[in-house]
Amino acid sequence: GNSSMALRKATAAPWSELSTRLQYLTEGKDIHTAGRRGLRHRTDGPPSAQAELRLFGARESEVRVVLYRDNHAWCPYCHKVWLQLEEKRVPYRVEKISMNCYGDKKRSFLQKTPRGLLPALELDSNFYVESSVIMQLIEEA
Fold this sequence. Notes:
The chain has four helices and five strands; from the N terminus they run αββαβαββα.
């Protein structure tokens, strides 16, 4: 056979070696803290789907938008609204809401939208649902 086409037999590292590597990489780090991946408390800087407040240099008192989105950032409709807020650098707060498949929604949220639709957005105390409507609103604001 052609030596340039020869395949090397791939071997995986043994579990003991992988365990040693993992211990080395995580030494001194708490890898089990909630929000460790997402910079939950960072208000500026790189985007994070785990962030609770994004200011983009504004004061917290100037925030006019509340984005209601799914807890785990899996909903594509929530995600596209989030991306637009990030791209346009609109200061906003985040309220995490469980998707129906993961449990009941907060009663306070259901009082605003009885069907519990996500995403939802509150702008100056006005409440909106449906991602396309919300995106148009952000575009015009």
